[in-house]
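Good morning C.,

I know you're traveling, so I'll keep this short. The sequence:
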Amino acid sequence: MKQISAIERLQSLPPIFRGADLTVRFQWTSKTASHYLYLWKRRRLVAEFGGHSDVFANLLVNRQPNWEKALLTAMPSAVVLGIEALRLAGWVTQLPSRPAVAVNARQSVFKTERFEITPRDPKWFDAIRAGIIGDRREGLPTLAPAWALADLLREFGWGTCGLWPDDIEGSGITPQDEDHWKAACRAFDQPETDLLSLVESPRSHGRGGL
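The tokens, ready to paste straight into the viewer:
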């Protein structure tokens, strides 16, 4: 019987995998799996997602890893928020150095250089449930822009959050966004203001929270 090489085994693994999968898939001991992961990392055939997540990108299969999938594999509760959520919606042009992602503080939380991980209380996830866009089975979910802005202002206020009202592209705000904004204000126990009027206000009047 032909002996399967370590490289052939790596080729048979998916683009994103857990190190623990090796013990089941190949009937390896934990020590053997750790040894091969070490060798593959040295040869730059795999890349770690980060922390002690035990999640790896298979560079032999795909040299351009889907780190969002790796993120969801490591932290299934992940949701994009903050300026990155606004950028994805076309509300701002700022490009964060790392996308901000909220994860449930009572579930697995790992540090990674690829995302800015923000642990949030489960109550926060309950509050923003109606503002989440996307299906985790299809990709990384994100907060709707109105919800993301409400969360930023609640946490930091204008300026401190990295934005001022004139940084927001108001022409893209729709009646649905206004509805989302008011729902977010209610969820965060903040006054229900008019979103378009808020982002069109002069910078000098924009200090503080919502």
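Safe travels,
E.
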